[in-house]
Design brief:
The structure is a homodimer of 233-residue chains. The first copy, chain A, contains eight helices and ten strands. Chain A is α/β, with parallel strands linked by helices and 233 residues long. The first copy, chain A, folds into two domains: 121 residues, Cobalt-precorrin-4 Transmethylase, domain 1 (3-Layer(aba) Sandwich), CATH 3.40.1010.10; 101 residues, Methyltransferase, Cobalt-precorrin-4 Transmethylase, Domain 2 (2-Layer Sandwich), CATH 3.30.950. In chain A, the strands form two sheets. Chain A has a five-stranded parallel sheet, with helices on both faces. In chain A, helix 3 crosses helix 4. At the A-B interface, helix 1, helix 4, strand 5, helix 5 and strand 6 of A face helix 1, helix 4, strand 5, helix 5 and strand 6 of B. Strand 6 of chain A pairs antiparallel with strand 6 of chain B.
Chain lengths: 233, 233
Amino acid sequence: MAKFYGIGVGPGDPELITIKAVKTLQYVDIIICPEAKKDKDSIALNIVRQYLKENTEIIFLTFPMTHDKEAVTSKALENSVVIKNEIDKGKNIGFITIGDPMVFSTYINLLPHLKSKGIQIETIPGITSFCAVAGRVNIPLCTKEETLGILPLMKDCFSLDKMLDDYDNLVIMKPSHDSAKMADILEAKGYSNKFVLVSKCGTEEEEICYDIDRLRKEKVHYLSTLIVKQSKV
Amino acid sequence: MAKFYGIGVGPGDPELITIKAVKTLQYVDIIICPEAKKDKDSIALNIVRQYLKENTEIIFLTFPMTHDKEAVTSKALENSVVIKNEIDKGKNIGFITIGDPMVFSTYINLLPHLKSKGIQIETIPGITSFCAVAGRVNIPLCTKEETLGILPLMKDCFSLDKMLDDYDNLVIMKPSHDSAKMADILEAKGYSNKFVLVSKCGTEEEEICYDIDRLRKEKVHYLSTLIVKQSKV
């Protein structure tokens, strides 16, 4: 029976992908690229393009980014039908996601529908953005008895205050959602020199920011991750 | 000038290492294996052995696992002198750590000493145990607006109660420290069927456990990771 592979392709640098992911990319018949809207431009695809066989079929599937749960579910269900049809034809499928498939990815929306259809699933982990960013600036995420909290920034910065109090170290994902308000909270709570923001880590357009004023004023790219420490960075 | 590379070698499966890590392993002159005690047996070395050149020099350095901070610091300092001497001889060095170098590793103890000696450092991220485990059992770590807490289990299960209340998803690292007490807390707080424990993930001796009684009674291997969800797994 053909198989479905969820493949983590890492944070952006094509060399930060695993041997297992590369072997799987070269094995599958079809690559599925999730996209938020129909534009046929995919960061994940750009990362893996060099590893694909010439005759690999590429299918773009739209996964809308919206708070409308019903729309998300019905589209994921629809996409799972497309996948099931290809599996039934004997095609092995690789679904690519940036970072790791189990950390804030569209893959997670798809999983229950694939499971309920009895599709054989193998997930191949990827390098998360926060590990890549920590390595890039040589700042530890957590050591010894410390805790690490990972928080996706929502439009209202909900729960950021509390998490800053509770955690030894904090990773803020999607800081572009409201970077100005986030900067205000960090400053008000005494973290002005205890954070680093990295955008487009490992690419030619990478930017590293330790400056609270820049964080407040400048537009933060979607592909950014912020680390906050209890100690000066 | 020669350079020092901190290399994440992933959770255990030799294919769950990045292309960049493999290229670096093949480039360096010396591989440093940290070990808790002098026994010349290293999980990290077993993972990477197949990727090394024949003439790569291997140096074992002891990093004691103890709560005695002074002993940890003085040994890390001593080890950094060994490294500096090799760098001064023009040798490129790769320091291997299982998982990711910035998540609970001895590499973190070494970093400040390397920085203060002006050694050029590059960190190469690795697949964390928790991403590998989540992928292995196809259980998401966090999605949409959820938070993820990562907690190393200490002997007294300190802060586990509170983190179970505060987090949408929780990863418990080093659950072998007191797995029986941890099982009691999970059961008391209603998480008996909301966890999964994976030991030696991706190896031939891998074990997966969803059973609270087994968790309470059986010895948990050092290389284990536990995921707790707010929903049934």
